[in-house]
Design goal:
Elements (H helix, E strand, L loop, with lengths): L12 E7 L6 H9 L6 E8 L5 H10 L4 E6 L4 H11 L4 E4 L5 E2 L3 H11 L4 E9 L14 E5 L2 H4 L15 E4 L15 H12 L2 E13 L17 H15 L2 H25 L4 H20 L5 H12 L1 H13 L5
Parallel strand pairs: 1-2, 1-4, 2-3, 6-9
Antiparallel strand pairs: 4-8, 5-9, 6-8, 7-9
C-alpha cells in the first residue's frame, strides 16, 4: 500500500475527481493519477450518486492506495461535486481531473515545477482529444512557456475559444485562489461562472504547451449531449462576465465579452427555437435579453460597423442574420 510521506519536503497536491456513472473509465483515470512521478498526493473522488459501479470501483482503488479517498453523495450535479472536492482538499495546490479523462505520468510534476519556476499562482497546460484507450504522451523538447499578469491573463479566456482558461481541468492552482468562490449548485457550464474570478485571484498565470491531459471526445457529458434547457445556464455567466470587466474598467475585455455574448447567444436561441418550439414566451424573453445587450454594446461603441449591422440584423430577422453570416464567412470577413 502506498502512503503519503509525512516527512516529505514536497508540498501536498490534491487531485480532485468528480465522478458520475463513469464505470467504464474511472479506474484508468485514478490509476493515471496514482502513478504520477510526484508521489506526495491526495486523490479525492466524489461519486455523485452514480447508479453504476463507479463508486464501487473507486473504493477498490482506495483500498490499495492510502492516498485515495472516496466521498459518496446523493446526485447533486457536477458543480456540487466540485465544491465538495475543494472543501475536502488538504493540499496547498489543486488539480482537477474529470473521471473519464486521464493524464500524463508527469502532469503534476511538470505543472508544479513550471508554476514555481515562473512564480505563478496557476499553471495551465494543453490537452489532446480523442477516443484512444491508451494515448502515449511524449516529452515536449521545444516547450513554450508564457506567463501573464494584469489584463493579459484574462485574454486567454477568449483565445480562439480554446477554453484552456475556462475549464476546471488542465490547470494546477494554489488552493487559496478558491477562497470565497463557489461553483453554482445545480448549474452546468459551472466553469463559465468561476473562470474570470479564479484568474482575478491569481497574480500571475503561466501557460505551457506541454500536452498533459487526454480528453475523451466520446464521453456523453451533459454539455456534449443534445440541446437541453440547462444549456441556458451559460447566459447569466456570460452577462456576469460583462459586468465583471465593466466594474474593473477594462474596456477591451468588455468589448470582447460583448462580442462573445452576441455570437454565442444565437446558438442558444436556435436551440430553443428548434428543440422547444412551444417555449415561445421564453424565446421572446431571450430575444429581449439579446436586444438589450446589443443596444448597450452599440451605445458604448463596442462594435465595428460590420458587427453593428450584423448583430442588429438578428433583431430584425434571425434568418437574414444567418444568411449574412454565411456570406461573410465565405468572404473570410471577421465578425
Amino acid at each position: 500500500m502506498r502512503k503519503n510521506s509525512v516527512e516529505s519536503a514536497l508540498p501536498l497536491i490534491s487531485v480532485l475527481v468528480p465522478a458520475y456513472e463513469a464505470e467504464k473509465y474511472i479506474k484508468q483515470c485514478i490509476m493515471s493519477i496514482s502513478h504520477q512521478s510526484w508521489e506526495n498526493l491526495e486523490i479525492i473522488v466524489v461519486d455523485d450518486g452514480s447508479k453504476d459501479r463507479t463508486g464501487e470501483i473507486a473504493d477498490e482503488c482506495a483500498s490499495s492506495d492510502g492516498r485515495i479517498r472516496v466521498i459518496h453523495q446523493e446526485n447533486a450535479g457536477v458543480a456540487s461535486a466540485r465544491n465538495a472536492l475543494i472543501n475536502s482538499a488538504k493540499g496547498e495546490y489543486i488539480l482537477q481531473v474529470d473521471a473519464d479523462d486521464y493524464i500524463s505520468p508527469k502532469t503534476v510534476e511538470t505543472l508544479y515545477k513550471t508554476l514555481i519556476e515562473t512564480d505563478a499562482d496557476m499553471c495551465v497546460c494543453t490537452m489532446t482529444t480523442g477516443d484512444l484507450p491508451d494515448y502515449e504522451f511524449h516529452v515536449n523538447e521545444n516547450r513554450r512557456v508564457d506567463t501573464y499578469e494584469g489584463a493579459d491573463k484574462f485574454l486567454k479566456l477568449f483565445d480562439d475559444r480554446k477554453f484552456d482558461s475556462i475549464v476546471p481541468w488542465e490547470k494546477l492552482c494554489k488552493k487559496e485562489l478558491f477562497n470565497g468562490l463557489h461553483y453554482p449548485d445545480g448549474k452546468i457550464h459551472e466553469d463559465e461562472y468561476l473562470a474570470h474570478y479564479l484568474l482575478d485571484h491569481a497574480k500571475r498565470v503561466t501557460y505551457t504547451d506541454d500536452v498533459l491531459f487526454y480528453y475523451r471526445v466520446e464521453k456523453k457529458s451533459i454539455t456534449k449531449s443534445s440541446f437541453s434547457m440547462k444549456r441556458l445556464d451559460c447566459i447569466p455567466a456570460l452577462l456576469d462576465r460583462i459586468r465583471f470587466f465593466e466594474e474593473k474598467g477594462e474596456r477591451e475585455l468588455v468589448r470582447i465579452c460583448y462580442l462573445d455574448f452576441l455570437k454565442r447567444f444565437q446558438y442558444y436561441y436556435y436551440g430553443i427555437r428548434y428543440h422547444f418550439p412551444e417555449k415561445t414566451g421564453l424565446r421572446h424573453e431571450l430575444f429581449d435579453t439579446y436586444a438589450d445587450v446589443y443596444r448597450k454594446a452599440h451605445g458604448k461603441r463596442m462594435l465595428s460597423p460590420v458587427q453593428t449591422i450584423l448583430f442588429g440584423l438578428f433583431i430584425v430577422s434571425p434568418y437574414l442574420n444567418y444568411q449574412a453570416r454565411k456570406v461573410l464567412h465565405k468572404k473570410a470577413i471577421d465578425t
